[in-house]
Amino acid sequence: MYLLRPAAYNVRRIVPSLRTMAGQAGPLTDLKVDNDGVAILTMQRMPVNSLNLDLLQDLSKSFDEVAKNKARAMILTSASPTVFSAGLDIMEMYKPDLKRAEAFWSTLQEVWLKLFGANFITAAAINGHSPAGGCLLSMSCEYRAMVAGKYSIGLNETALGIIAPPWFMDTVCHTIPMRQAEMALTTGKLFPVDEALKVGLIDEIATDKDDAIAKCKAFIKKFDRIPPLARSITKLSIREGPLKRLQANRKEDVAEFIKYVGNPKIQQGLEMYIQAMKQKPKK
């Protein structure tokens, strides 16, 4: 993550509401396996599944559990009725404890490595907005069905004055054509659902969450007659380059993130934003 334009303006566009930072009692994820051996993993850090260290750790453990129990596939979705995931939690970057900040970014790396490099089949039932880190999670899956509506999806870091890490970019380039990926990344574009389908950022449009899950299961069923080992080896061979690049540069990537959050201008912008949100009347 490289900073280009540190300003309070950028911070205001990263997180729409201070409510995304609030703590939550109860489990942050729910993992269930159906009779067909398909695991449904639901993010439930309400209201918008902002990705903090705790949620990322739960996701990482859940991926391990799916692999350990040898589920044939996993569908990632959200308990929120309008948001898949709003992306990274701003409070992990505001006046951070350095050890926690390192753990936060390292765990995000682990989540991506495990999801992008999963042996089992992966799909995302995207039932709402999916910007930035939310888009990264959905793109890391092999298949995406997104609910119709006034929702958007994309990596919008560039529009915020931030350059996405190389492994974020690799994920986009493995999802949509290179030319489209370049345009999307350089403009920080958030795609409406219909346009996301046209460019290949999602694979199908669903009527609701249940329909999105059903479409993901239909995709998974396509592999019923494909030998699982041949399928997984082929998938991982295609994804080998990006996986190896991050694995070889994890320490440098973490150091770059720590440098970013330690920038005084970034901290000043975060402070201004948080204070503004505290003074905002509740609806």
Brief summary:
By secondary structure, the chain is α/β, with parallel strands linked by helices. It is 48% helix and 15% strand.
Architecture overview:
The chain has 283 residues and is α/β, with parallel strands linked by helices. The chain has twelve helices and eleven strands. It has helices at 8-14, 53-68, 98-116, 133-140, 166-173, 178-187, 193-199, 209-221, 228-238, 240-248, 250-261, 264-279; strands spanning 2-3, 29-33, 38-43, 73-78, 121-126, 130-131, 143-147, 152-154, 162-163, 191-192, 204-206. The chain has a six-stranded mixed beta sheet, with helices on both faces. Strands 6-8-10 form a three-stranded mixed beta sheet. The protein has a two-stranded antiparallel sheet with strand order 1-9. Strand 4 (73-78), helix 3 (98-116) and strand 5 (121-126) form a beta-alpha-beta unit. Helix 2 (53-68) runs parallel beside helix 3 (98-116), helix 3 packs across helix 11 (250-261) and helix 5 (166-173) runs antiparallel to helix 10. The chain is globular and about 55 Å long. Residues 2-22 have low confidence and may be disordered.
| Total beta strand runs | 11
Order of helices and strands: EHEEHEHEEHEEEHHEHEHHHHH
Give start-end ranges of low-pLDDT stretches.
Answer: 2-22
Class computed from helices, strands and strand pairing: alpha/beta
Distance between the termini: 34 Å
Oligomerization category of the chains in this entry? single chain
Strand order, main sheet: write it out.
2-3-4-5-7-11
Biggest sheet architecture = 6 strands, mixed
Q: What is the mean predicted local confidence, pLDDT?
A: 89
Q: Could you say which overall geometry the principal axes of the C-alpha atoms support?
A: globular
Helicity, as a percent range: 40-55%
